[in-house]
Specification:
The protein is of the alpha+beta class. It folds into 2 domains: 70 residues, 2-Layer Sandwich (wza like fold), CATH 3.30.1950.10; 73 residues, Outer membrane lipoprotein wza domain like (Outer membrane lipoprotein wza fold like), CATH 3.10.560. It contains 5 helices and 10 strands, in the order αβαβββαβββαββαβ. A 5-stranded mixed sheet has the order 7-6-10-8-9, with helices on one face. The protein starts with a helix and ends in an 8-residue tail after the last strand.
């Protein structure tokens, strides 16, 4: 009887250790796949996301989502709930796969507004504001390159990307760029 008790106790301890190992950690990459949405939307969401130092991932359309410390299944449920509650998708099915990599070498910049492919853009050293917008497919026919917004650490700056000097402004990981709609005079 004592042997059975020790065996059960050992199995429970191993289960707790395995559960702790499957938790999403800061600095790691997670892969997210979504089903039950239009194919062009799948392309925007399906990606590998780095978990920031603050423990968040930045998802298209819903912004920051807490990830660190959660299991992949709990994070998938959280993302599904956010998309449903914000009425972006009615019946999404999200899958989250935790990466086994020790660190994340890939960072992103989020580009939104009037661009052809809003969402995350892979950050590379030397990436400038103009190239980040072009990596998101460039401005749509309704997008204004005269008033492009760069949001970094909660601070907003506006740039005229028709000027050569503004095109060379370097972006940093986790920056958000927004291409606004043209105003009444086409700017």
């Amino acid at each position: 009887m004592k042997t059975i008790y020790l065996l059960i106790l050992g199995l429970l301890a191993m289960t707790g250790w395995a559960d702790a190992q499957s938790r999403i950690q800061v600095g790691r990459a997670i892969e997210i796949r979504i089903q039950g949405v239009p194919s062009e939307e799948m392309q925007r969401v399906n990606n590998t996301y780095p978990v920031s130092e603050g423990g968040y991932i930045r998802m298209p359309f819903i912004g920051n989502v807490r990830a660190a410390g959660m299991s992949p299944n709990a994070l998938a449920s959280s993302i599904e709930s956010r998309y449903k509650s914000e009425k972006i998708y009615t019946n999404p099915t999200v899958q989250v796969f935790a990466s086994s990599d020790e660190t994340v070498a890939e960072y992103i910049v989020t580009v939104g507004g009037q661009v052809r492919r809003p969402g995350p853009v892979k950050y590379q050293r030397g990436l400038n504001l103009y190239n980040a917008v072009q990596a998101a497919g460039g401005a749509t026919e309704f997008g204004s390159m005269y008033r492009v917004k760069l949001i970094r650490n909660g601070k907003l700056r506006q740039y005229d990307l028709t000027e050569t000097q503004a095109k060379g402004v370097l972006v940093k990981p986790n920056d958000t760029i927004e291409v606004p709609q043209k105003n009444i005079i086409g700017r």
